[in-house]
Amino acid sequence: MPKMKTKSSAKKRFRVRPGGTIKCGHAFKRHILTKKTTKNKRQLRGITNVNAADTVSVMRMMPNA
Fold first, then answer.
1. Which UniProt keywords apply (predicted)?
2. Shortest CA distance to 14 belongs to which of 41, 40, 43, 51?
3. On the CB side of 36, how many CA atoms lie within 13 Å of its CA?
4. pLDDT value at position 33?
């Protein structure tokens, strides 16, 4: 039986924390920043957790995590 492979895009975007939660970066922070408010850009800094509804699909993409 062949090994299950990790999706390369998922391993670049997500990290599994020791508690089992998954951390990721914020979206909408890469370009077209002139029309976004300063408050919005400030709140997009840092990292966040993946939503509980999406955790199953992210873990399916990373079977070895």
1. Ribonucleoprotein, Ribosomal protein
2. 51
3. 14
4. 97
* 4 in a structural domain: no
Does residue 46 sit within a domain?
yes
pTM above 0.85, yes or no: no
Centre a 10 Å sphere on the Cβ of residue 31 and count the other Cβ atoms it contains: 6
Matching residue, tokens 């062949």: 2
Tell me which residues of the chain have a pLDDT lower than 50: none
Where do the DSSP E strands lie in the chain? 14-16, 22-25, 47-49
In a domain, 50, yes or no: yes
**pLDDT tens track for 45-62:** 999 999 999 999 999 999
| Tally of domains in the chain | 1
- Boundaries of domain holding 19: 15-61
